[in-house]
Fold this sequence. Notes:
CATH class: Alpha Beta
Number of domains: 1
Mean pLDDT: 83
CATH superfamily: Response regulator
Oligomer: single chain
Strand content: 15-25%
Shape: globular
Amino acid sequence: MENTNRLRPLHIMLIDNDTHVRDSLKLFFESSQVQFLIFKSALEGLNSLKYQKTDVVISDYFLPDMDGIEFLIQVKKFHPNVTRILMATLSSDDLEQEIARYGIDSFIEKPLTVATLDTLINELKTANFSKQIRR
Length: 135
């Protein structure tokens, strides 16, 4: 008999216009038990959210069609329960204030490291597990 109570894998969407970042992260996530979608623009990500179940959206600040904060604001309008994470090369007081003002869940400073990603994924899996238990 199949176990229907199994937890579904975590679904993460990454938006970054840097080909090297996308390729590296795709390679990193291939060996994990995470469903990972990668896009190069905010509009591609927003379009995908119409059709794909996503738990976490990670966005670079600098995107070709809008900044990452505006993108994450749009994400929240359509999917209020999605965890939203912003990535940027440099942090500033103004950026931190915007992150807080718009309720963005977390900030990651680039460059990303495997250790940072491992920690983030483990935290997200734990949070996802807690959400599924409460349902």
